[in-house]
Design goal:
Shape: globular
Radius of gyration: 19 Å
Largest sheet: none
Number of strands: 0
Strand content: under 5%
Mean pLDDT: 88
Distance between the termini: 22 Å
Structural class: mainly alpha
Helix content: over 70%
Order of helices and strands: HHHHHHHHHHHHH
Low-confidence stretches: 303-320
Length: 323
């Protein structure tokens, strides 16, 4: 928290509105885009362009260039986050409603908690945490179980698996982010990861033969608008608002976007995208959100890693999933 004078209240509210509603709306924008642009190519265009713009802007402001070691670390994280995590996400959104996608991706704290309990031993398995994990897993099971549709259309099995891989991959990247040398500037770190991840996504798109048969002239204005929206609003404006908010508000308060984004995504998917929202989606969303709120407010095992500092680290990394 900074000691300088706080900005006007309306600016704080505007920044919260951006990370709540803009980031929540990116799932629908992705779904609109992947119906006309191949998923890996769309992801590559989004992140490489956003990374390039952010990198150029930061360099004009005088932010130092990442060192060779920092570029290597950023490239490794870029591969995990943008190629595996976002690659799976964009691919899955061809097959799964945007609202359900957002809710499944909200389980990232569940995977992080499991990693910390089983491998890192930085989190103690308490009754409260254990129940939260069970509730989260049940929420995912409700959403993706084809035999428990509750009147809704079954979820595409491969798409559901891809989303779970995306959540697990991002969780691993979150843990690694704490242990690799990255630029001191969070914005430069994100820009470097987007640049390298976007470049690798172009390679993946080429290997997947997405360029073959793709004609830019056949893409509608709505799909191009979705891409521009993802680049400018979702990545550049959203991340800037997020970093700015962390300067004036507690990480715990800023982190509430993780609870709001899935609700916004489900609502937009229903009212704007024409996606079905029935008992299964509502029940799964409720269970996942209850789990995530409980996990992210549970104190750490070590005294120096209390819920506030843990929340800060989780938020810093989770924020990058929404850029």
């Amino acid at each position: 928290m900074d000691s300088e004078a706080r900005p006007a209240y309306w600016k704080i509210l505007l920044a919260f509105a951006v990370i709540y509603f803009v980031w929540g709306s990116t799932f629908l924008a992705i779904r609109i885009g992947v119906h006309e642009v191949p998923p890996f190519l769309l992801a590559a265009l989004r992140f490489f362009t956003a990374g390039l713009v952010m990198y150029a802007w930061l360099r004009l402001k005088g932010t130092p260039v990442p060192s060779p070691r920092e570029w290597v670390a950023a490239s490794a994280l870029g591969a995990l986050i943008f190629v595996l995590d976002y690659g799976c996400l964009f691919w899955a959104e061809q097959r799964i409603p945007s609202g359900v996608t957002a809710v499944v991706l909200a389980t990232i704290p569940v995977f992080i908690a499991l990693l910390e309990i089983i491998f890192l031993r930085t989190q103690k398995l308490t009754v409260r945490l254990g129940l939260a994990l069970i509730v989260g897993i049940c929420g995912v099971a409700v959403l993706v179980n084809r035999s428990f549709s509750l009147g809704e259309a079954p979820i595409h099995r491969a798409g559901a698996i891809a989303l779970l891989v995306a959540s697990a991959t991002w969780s691993i990247a979150t843990i690694l982010t704490r242990r690799v040398p990255l630029p001191a500037s969070k914005a430069m770190s994100a820009a470097a990861q987007m640049l390298t991840g976007g470049a690798l996504l172009f390679v993946l798109a080429a290997v997947s033969k997405e360029f073959a048969g793709f004609h830019m002239g056949a893409v509608s204005w709505s799909a191009w608008f979705a891409l521009v929206y993802l680049i400018i609003a979702g990545s550049i404006v959203g991340f800037t608002a997020y970093v700015w908010l962390l300067h004036y508000e507690s990480p715990t308060k800023v982190g509430t976007y993780a609870y709001v984004n899935p609700v916004v995504a489900v609502g937009l998917g229903y009212f704007v995208g024409g996606e079905a929202v029935g008992t299964r989606t509502l029940l799964g969303t409720l269970l996942v959100l209850a789990s995530v709120i409980t996990i992210t407010t549970t104190p750490k095992k070590r005294p120096e890693l209390d819920s506030s500092s843990a929340g800060s680290q989780l938020i810093e990394n989770a924020g990058q999933t929404s850029v």
